Amino acid sequence: MISLVIPVYNEKENLSLLMERLEKVMQSMKRPYEIIFVDDGSRDGSLEILKGFIGRQGVRIVELTRNYGQHRAIMAGFSVVRGSIIVTLDADLQNPPEHIPALVHTLEEGDYEVVGSFRALRQDSFLRKIPSRIMNAITLKITKVRMTDWGCMLRAYRRRVVDWMVSSQEYSTFIPVLATLFAKRMTEIPVEHANRHGGKSNYGLRKLISLQFDLLTSFSEFPLKVLLYVGTVLSIAGVSFGILLGIARIFYGAEWAAYGVFTLFAILFFFVGGIFFALGIMGQYIGRIYHEVRKRPRFTIHEVYECPKVSLDS
Question: Model-level pTM greater than 0.70?
Answer without folding.
Answer: yes
